[in-house]
């Protein structure tokens, strides 16, 4: 017992850092991940606390104070980012617009992720006819232009938050299916999968315990890419008048409403456009960073 105390620190030093310490070091040294996660976290907090942070009611119209300039262009602090053509406070609408973008992006990515991941893992694990059917469905989906199909469906069903989420969730699963199929094909040939099958593990247990943990890195990247893609598609649909309908605050709708005054009041388009760009960039950086820090040691 007396010899054990000096040996333990020596063994800890020889064994090297723990996986948690390695992960923490990677996160602290990845500036893209820190920046992206920080921006997304800030916007998420702003969206959650929108009723508290918004200085005015985003739906309240005040025609006597319409087209007030933002404070950096000579406006007043009563409306720091000015007002729109109906006198609604631009900062308040921008804050509430974060709710719409994050909600649509996250829910649409969740729906498409569940559909695409289930199809891709099934095709890669079972192969044969299942793989042939899934591959055929992927080819059919890839032959359909997302924007045109979304425009047609939304035009038929009518633009609303629920319709936009459902349409995007049912159209953006193809990338999940392709990547998860390829990843599962690689992992299912590994020794630990064969060992689990040899000891009699059920198919759901093999997939959930052996397959999924080893393809989660790829899944993280696709989730963030499709989340950003869904946010941009919602903004495009709202810009064309087929997405979120007024008076609901939406960044794409704000750009659409300000386009007629773009040559005279460019800040009406510039402010929501810049915020949309920053959010999409931050989500992509966060996804790329999560892939790097959770990757095997061989990846820099």
Beta fraction of the residues?
Answer: under 5%
Describe the largest sheet: none
CATH architecture of the domain at 100-293: Orthogonal Bundle
Task: Count the E strands.
Answer: 0
Could you tell me how far the N terminus lies from the C terminus, measured between alpha carbons in angstroms? 42 Å
The CATH class of the domain at 100-293 is: Mainly Alpha
Secondary-structure element series: HHHHHHHHHHHHHH
Estimated structural class: mainly alpha
**SS field, number of helical segments:** 14
Low-confidence stretches: 1-7
CATH superfamily of the domain at 100-293, called what? MetI-like
**Mean pLDDT, all residues:** 85
User: What value does the Rg take, in angstroms?
Assistant: 24 Å
Shape estimate: globular
What kind of assembly state do the chains in view correspond to?
A: single chain
What is the fold named in CATH at topology level of the domain at 100-293? MetI-like fold
Helix content: over 70%
Describe this structure as you would to a colleague:
- By secondary structure, the chain is mostly helical.
- Helices cover 70% and strands 0% of the residues.
- Helix 3 crosses helix 5 (90-126), helix 5 (90-126) packs antiparallel against helix 6 and helix 12 runs parallel beside helix 13.
- The model is unreliable at 1-7 (pLDDT under 50).
Brief overview:
By secondary structure, this protein is mostly helical.
């Amino acid at each position: 017992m007396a010899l054990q105390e000096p040996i333990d620190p020596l063994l800890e030093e020889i064994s090297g850092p723990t996986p948690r310490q390695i992960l923490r070091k990677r996160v602290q040294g990845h500036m893209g991940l820190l920046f992206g996660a920080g921006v997304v976290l800030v916007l998420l907090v702003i969206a959650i606390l929108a009723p508290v942070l918004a200085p005015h009611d985003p739906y309240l119209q005040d025609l006597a104070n319409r087209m007030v300039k933002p404070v950096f262009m000579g406006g007043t602090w009563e409306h720091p980012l000015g007002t729109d053509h109906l006198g609604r406070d631009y900062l308040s609408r921008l804050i509430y617009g974060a709710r719409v973008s994050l909600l649509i992006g996250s829910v649409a990515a969740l729906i498409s992720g569940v559909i695409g991941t289930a199809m891709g893992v099934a095709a890669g694990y079972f192969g044969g006819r299942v793989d042939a059917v899934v591959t055929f469905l992927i080819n059919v989906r890839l032959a359909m232009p997302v924007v045109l199909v979304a425009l047609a469906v939304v035009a038929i069903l009518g633009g609303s938050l629920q319709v936009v989420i459902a349409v995007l969730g049912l159209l953006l699963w193809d990338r999940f299916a392709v990547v998860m199929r390829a990843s599962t094909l690689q992992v299912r040939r590994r020794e630990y999968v064969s060992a689990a099958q040899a000891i009699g593990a059920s198919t759901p247990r093999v997939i959930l315990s052996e397959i999924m943990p080893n393809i989660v890195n790829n899944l993280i990247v696709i989730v963030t890419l499709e989340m950003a893609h869904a946010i941009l598609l919602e903004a495009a649909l709202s810009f064309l008048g087929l997405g979120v309908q007024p008076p609901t605050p939406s960044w794409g709708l704000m750009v659409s409403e300000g386009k007629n005054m773009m040559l005279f009041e460019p800040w009406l388009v510039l402010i929501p456009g810049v915020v949309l760009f920053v959010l999409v960039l931050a989500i992509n950086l966060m996804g790329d960073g999560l892939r790097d820090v959770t990757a095997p040691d061989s990846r820099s």
